[in-house]
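pasting for the record
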Amino acid sequence: MLAFTLSLSWVEVTWAEAFKALSKHGKLLLIPIIVGMIRTRQEALLAFACFGAAQIFLLASTWLLVAGIPIPWALSREHASMSSHAVFSSYLDQSIMTSIAAAVAWHLRDHMPGRQGKLIAIIAIIAAFICVFFIFKGRTGHVVAIAVISLASFWELPKRFRWAILLIAPLLLLILLAGSSKVRDRLEEVRVETLAFDHKDDVRTSTGIRLNLWQRSLQAMGERPLIGYGVGSWEMQYNRMQKKSFPEHQPIKGNPHQEYLLWGVELGVVGIALILSIFIAIYKDATGMLAPHRRALLSVLLGLALACLFNCSLYDALIGDFFCLTLGLLLALGLRPGSNTSDEHGKHHPSSPNTQALTA
């Protein structure tokens, strides 16, 4: 946040645009704030129970919409137009968030309260992945779901068989291509739209738009690679680069649909190094946790890293809040006093209050 703030000294956009972007990046502060506010193991468990209940509510609401039962809290514009069964955001965001929530539930299933807690968690996990693969059409959600399932399979396999992970993801994709029209059709769309962009510069499709946004972002980074153009500058630089090739281009608002390129245009290679350092700091914290907490946190981190390849998943509202909240809660749950850390051999060590997340 200091780097983004310092970039105000060389930014060329209006103060209103710059501070709007600064505030959107500011949701990252939720992570250390949550870790700092949750002081005990009991508080962490209570906070995470509330988070889990909210995810169950969201999943149940989705299935009510699938069943054709109207619910007054379905605020998504896509639902209003009957184009998807997303409840609050878009099918793209909700498919990613549902995949992440299912992965967290799987790794923490043995910690669910009540006699039937584990069974309820497994039922919710199955229902969640059915939504992702057979109801929602978000391609990024499909990628994230396949990744977290593959990672969970890796951890569940005996060490001598973990090489089989090289086969699990391709096998799962083949099964989905054969059994899910959502996955099959959306993957075919990527192929067709990529060819259309390559041969005809067609930017009217989802894939074509992204490829064009990424191309212009890389061109802008090439002009100022070290420190970028400053916070909130992406729109101005994209419109400038696009107008060079297409003089009739009308300015647009938005983002490059790629978190790394957004930081690259705004802060140059320094920005990309900073976002990667955040991921590394979280990874380092995870290595000192109990296996279930570590695996849940690393699953969220993997999902975020992949989602950021195709969307601005930290910068955007709703899904960015979801990721920051989830990471903060899992860090608090794994690092609070009263929880222990363990290595792969089951040895336990007291957790340290000086964590990478609090200093990042």
